[in-house]
Specification:
143 residues, 60% helix
């Protein structure tokens, strides 16, 4: 039987915060206004206290969860999404939203419904859905 979930150690959170605080404000030039707003949503999620476990790809070796790649077949994280926006991988914001939602799906699938990481994902998911619905409102009016 596999070990359920993983715990975010305090020093991991501090290291993530330090890495994040050293970065300058990202440049959104060259992006459409919709994707600039997606980047702003990402910035909000990344800076939220619950964002730590979702900032970077899951490292199954460091976290001692070797079964993660077998259980989670569509891994996703906020850094990967940011790179996909910057690289022009997404054709529209619905692809962006699907990737963000995949993070929350993965958290619950791997950790179960009441694990602390899943609860953090659910909090971020609520923030995301509110921000994303605000982004989609002008697009729906113009159609």
């Amino acid at each position: 039987e596999r070990q359920k979930g993983w715990k975010l150690e305090h020093n991991q959170t501090n290291n993530m915060s330090r890495r994040r605080s050293k970065r300058s404000t990202p440049s959104y030039s060259g992006l459409t206004s919709e994707f600039q707003e997606c980047m702003e949503i990402l910035t909000t999620l990344k800076s939220h206290p619950c964002g730590g476990p979702f900032l970077y790809p899951v490292d199954p070796i460091a976290l001692k969860i070797p079964d993660y790649p077998r259980v989670i077949t569509s891994p996703m994280d906020l850094q990967t999404i940011e790179m996909k926006i910057k690289n022009g991988t997404y054709s529209d914001t619905t692809e962006f939203a699907a990737d963000v939602r995949q993070i929350w799906i993965n958290a619950e699938k791997y950790n179960g419904p009441v694990h602390e990481v899943t609860l953090m994902a659910k909090q971020l998911g609520q923030i995301f859905e509110k921000s994303y619905s605000d982004l989609e409102k002008p697009a729906k009016k113009s159609k």
